[in-house]
Amino acid sequence: MKSIHPYLLQFFVFVPIFLFAQTAVRAQDDELTKLLSLKDDTIKVQQLSAFAKKMVHQDKDLSRQASSALLKTSQGLQYAKGIATGYSYLAFIDLEAGKHASAANLYNKAIIFYRQAKDDRGIAKCLGNMADIYESTGQGDRAVDARLAAVAILEKLLQSSSASRKDILHSLAIQYNNFAGTYSDLFLNNAKALTYLRKAENICRQAKDTSELVDVLNNLSDLLTAMGKENEALNVGKEVLELSKATKDNFHLAAGYQSYGYALYTLDRIDSAVLMLRKALQCANVANSDYRIFKATHSLALALARKGEYKEVIQLLENAYNGVAEDGALKYKSDIEEELANAYFKTGDYKAAYQHLENRFRLKDSVIQLANNHIIAEKETKYQTAQKEKELAQKELLLQKSRQQALLGLVSSIVALLVATLIYVQYRNKRRFHESQLRALQQEKEIQLLQALMQGEEKERSRIAKDLHDGVAGMLAAVKMHLSSSGGERASAGYTKATELLDEATAEVRKTSHNLMPEVLLQHGLDRALQRYCTNISSTSLQVHYFFIGEEQRFVGSFELSVYRIVQELLNNIFKHSKATEATVQLSIQETVLSVSIEDNGIGLTKQPAQSSGMGLESLKRRISALNGNMELSTDEGGGVNAYLEFSTEGLERDSSKAEDLSHERLTT
């Protein structure tokens, strides 16, 4: 009996699937059309949200349409939660497509409206996805900071009886799972990655969260393989496959087949591995998930290369590379380039192999392992040798006629060039050295002058504060005392009004004196002082939110006071010019670095009027430079301002066992 040709078999299998998929797409289009025709209310918003979430792994275009409609409807209703959800869904679609700049902008907008809706879980979700963006662009430190902030919010929500514990555990498992990716891919710390994956696994099993457990175990299987624990990885891969089959979801099935197939590949069971990985790629394509497609393609390419099917390997990898977004996913591109270089090298195309190897260095030179150095050197040597042989064959006749004369001229030219180069380099180095010395002296003088000016200002503030507190406030108290002891008619309206005005004046003087020299800063440090200041200046027209990350630490008084004044000035500028309704201040203390982030939702820097008084940006930057710090300002016109300040605190820590002379007299209330 003759067997059916493989391509004919594929035709009979995939044509019905294609026709079924077309029918399903038409049904989904009809469902979206029906939702769009509904009356604009919160019920429509909720239904659009559910549809957009359902379609995000099936049809991204439909998901984007639904998310845009969700955002527009919520804006018309002024429904903050719906607006935030719309922005976050659109951001996630851009994130999966590798459009990191657009995704980051949308997540920042979503966070603003999640805060208005008082939805901390939504804020944590956005912070976690922002961490994914930082990872994709190689900013590991910022990724860890964002992830820690998200985890802190989620762990706090677990203590709230009003929050859905299952949803919070799901979000927390996602953050731990992604933490593992950060440590494995960016920091190359597999032990730390394994710790976070185990935490995520325990949470998923506790919450019976099959969907996230599939992702966690998929990453766990890959990590165990990288750590040389192939048999343990195979057992995990089997469990992933069984769990994914139970979901009947192509997105999860792609993970199950890939995890199990890759484990088989590492154990050299190549035929079985290829079968599983082909199924993984098929499911990933149906799910239309770029990440799943890449993982399945990469694993399948490795298995096919082990069988010597290099032409198919090249075709698979080229298709995968074209599917990766242009502005991101550098790790994926780097892995593809490495395997393409290996495949072309095996086929004897050394030029193409060398080109892809150069691309590999350009994309991620830092992750190339020393164990591959001999392969790289062999490819490069063969390609360079072939190029040189070609050039030598073309020039052989000319070199034979004038070899001696050309050699003599070449040597003379080289010697002359070397002498001239040495003279020039020596002259240039001397000039640069003198210029650097001059710049250093000028900067040192500027810093000394600025520090003296700052010290003078603080002394004057302290003097004025003391005069107000001890002088004017005392006089007002004396006036009230004399007024109380006078023989005037106390029941009269004028007397009552006078005493009220005296109380208000006394409170205002006391408040002004404390702002000039805040007692809470002297006693408790920056965290408590900034928290109280932000609370005091918040009003109905401008809400100022304050966050603190890290461990509380005290520093020398002059440094704390300078940072406090700088934050005061920036917040005053927001009050005066930004027309903002919300501002956020975040203080972070990590080892020997203190950072402050201040952002608002105002009109942006370009529309602010020129400042005629106050520090001004240049003066502010000079002050920050004098404190061994730096400041970055970013703004979108009409979209608010984000200021990021960073200071080195090395050598500025206060010895807690000794009382420090702050060079200021403390005020008493």
Automatic annotation (TrEMBL):
SMART domains: HATPase_c, TPR
InterPro entries attached to this UniProt entry: HATPase_C_sf (IPR036890), HATPase_dom (IPR003594), His_kinase_dom (IPR005467), Sensor_HK_TwoCompSys (IPR050482), Sig_transdc_His_kin_sub3_dim/P (IPR011712), TPR-like_helical_dom_sf (IPR011990), TPR_rpt (IPR019734)
Residue ranges that the Swiss-Prot or TrEMBL entry lists as coiled coil: 376-460
Domain Histidine kinase positions: 463-651
PROSITE patterns (UniProt xref): HIS_KIN (PS50109)
Family annotation (Pfam families): HATPase_c (PF02518), HisKA_3 (PF07730), TPR_10 (PF13374)
Keyword set, alphabetical order: Coiled coil, Kinase, Membrane, Transferase, Transmembrane, Transmembrane helix, Two-component regulatory system
GO CC annotation terms, alphabetical: membrane
Annotated CDD domains: HATPase_UhpB-NarQ-NarX-like (cd16917)
GO molecular function: phosphorelay sensor kinase activity; protein dimerization activity
TM stretches of this protein: 406-425
Protein name: Sensor histidine kinase
The organism of origin for this protein: Paraflavisolibacter caeni
